[in-house]
From TrEMBL:
Protein name: tRNA wybutosine-synthesizing protein 4
Chain's gene name: LOC109474411
Top-level division of the source organism's lineage: Eukaryota
Residues making up the signal peptide according to the UniProt record: none
Similarity-based family: Belongs to the methyltransferase superfamily. LCMT family.
Residues of the full protein shown: 16 to 330 of 696
Length: 315
C-alpha cells in the first residue's frame, strides 16, 4: 500500500544521505574516518552537493560539541532520532568526547538491523561500541551505545524501549533530528517534539532541516523530494525561523535559538577554514550556494538547566 511505499522511500533517504556525506568527507571537506565503513558503493557528488553536506556536518558537529563541552565531566545522553547510518557516535567516541555520555540511536528496525550487521562485521566499529556489547532485536547495545529499532511515530513504544535501555529523564539530554522529522508529517513530528519536552527535564532538541520552501531554491528542492516520493511534510507549515521557534515553544520548550546556514557560515566558520574549503575543488556557483544555505537551518529548543548550544547566535 501507499503508506508502506512511502516508508520505504523515507528509509531510502538514508542511503542517499550517507553516500553524499561520504563523498564530501573523502574529498576532505570534513573529517570523519567512519562514514566510509557504512557505504558499500562510494560515489563522488557534485561540488554544490558536497558543500551542502559540509555545512550540515559543521553545524551539527558544532551543536553536539558545544553541548558536550558545556557538560564536560557530567553524565549526559545523546539521542539521535532517525540516525540512519550516521557515524557521529564513532567519530566522537574516537575523539574521546563521549567519556560520560550514553549515545542512543533510533531508526526504523529495517535500518538499525542493517547498521547493527555492519557494526558486528567491522572490528574497528565493534571496538568503539565496546567489548561488552550485545545483540538485541534489530540492534546492538553496550553501556555507552544503544542502537534501537523503532518507529518514531509511535512515541509510547519509543519511550518503553528507551526506558528499557536505561534512559534517564533527569540526565542532561540532547535529542537530534538531522533531516528526519520533516519526513514524518506534522502530527507525528509534533508528538515527538512534545514527548521529548514532557519526558526530559534538562534537554535540548536540535533540528536541522529545510526552511522557506516556496522561495527560489526551496521550491526546486520541494519538487525534487516530491518526485523521490519523500515530500517534506512539515515545512509548508513551519516555513520561517520564527514559525519554527513558535512551534517548539507551543510544544513545551522554554527557549529556542536558531540560525540559517548563511548566518552560521558567516559567523561561526573561521576565515582560514573558508579558504581551506575553497581550495578543495573548483567551484563557481557561489550564488546557488548562498541561496541553498539560506534554505537550511539548525533550530535548538531547550529547557531546564541546559543552555542552548547556539547561545551566540540568534534569529
Ligand atoms: N539523521 C541521519 C543523517 O543525517 O545522516 C539520516 C537522515 S535520513 C535523510 C532520514 C532518516 O530518518 C532515515 O534513516 C529514516 O529511516 C529515518 N526516519 C524517518 N522517519 C522515521 C520514523 N517514523 N521512524 C524511524 N526512523 C525514521
Amino acid at each position: 500500500n501507499s503508506k508502506s511505499r512511502n516508508d520505504t522511500a523515507v528509509r531510502g533517504t538514508n542511503d542517499n544521505s550517507i553516500v553524499s556525506k561520504c563523498s564530501m568527507c573523502m574529498l576532505g571537506y570534513f573529517q570523519d574516518d567512519f562514514l566510509g565503513h557504512f557505504v558499500a558503493k562510494p560515489a563522488r557528488r557534485a561540488p554544490l552537493i558536497n558543500r551542502g553536506y559540509y555545512i550540515r556536518a559543521k553545524a551539527v558537529d558544532y551543536v553536539l560539541k558545544s553541548f558536550l563541552s558545556a557538560h564536560e565531566g557530567t553524565k549526559t545522553q545523546l539521542v539521535s532520532l532517525g540516525a540512519g547510518f550516521d557515524s557521529a557516535y564513532f567519530r566522537l567516541k574516537s575523539e574521546g568526547l563521549l567519556v560520560t555520555t550514553v549515545f542512543y540511536e533510533v531508526d526504523f528496525p529495517e535500518v538499525t538491523q542493517r547498521k547493527s550487521d555492519m557494526i558486528r562485521g567491522d572490528e574497528l566499529l565493534l571496538k568503539l561500541v565496546g567489548e561488552d556489547s550485545r545483540v538485541v532485536e534489530n540492534g546492538i547495545v553496550s553501556p555507552s551505545y544503544k542502537l534501537i529499532g523503532a518507529d518514531l511515530r509511535k512515541v509510547n513504544i519509543l519511550q518503553c524501549l528507551l526506558e528499557h535501555h536505561g534512559i534517564h529523564p533527569d540526565c542532561p539530554t540532547l535529542l537530534l533530528s538531522e533531516c528526519v522529522i520533516t519526513y514524518m508529517g506534522v502530527k507525528s513530528s509534533n508528538a515527538v517534539i512534545r514527548w521529548a519536552a514532557e519526558t526530559f527535564s534538562n534537554a535540548v532538541f536540535v533540528t536541522y532541516e529545510q526552511v522557506y520552501p516556496t522561495d527560489g531554491f526551496g521550491a526546486v528542492m520541494q519538487n525534487h523530494f516530491k518526485k523521490l516520493g519523500t515530500p517534506l511534510m512539515n515545512i509548508q507549515r513551519y516555513r520561517t525561523l520564527d514559525a519554527q521557534r513558535q512551534r517548539y515553544l507551543d510544544l513545551g520548550w522554554t527557549c529556542v535559538s536558531a540560525t540559517d546556514m548563511n548566518h552560521f557560515h558567516n559567523t561561526l566558520i573561521p576565515r582560514e577554514e573558508k579558504l581551506r574549503v575553497d581550495s578543495i575543488e573548483v567551484f563557481d556557483e557561489f550564488e546557488e550556494w548562498h541561496l541553498k544555505c539560506s534554505h537550511y537551518a539548525v533550530v535548538c529548543a531547550f529547557k531546564g538547566s541546559t543552555v542552548s548550544p547556539l547561545s551566540e547566535t540568534v534569529f
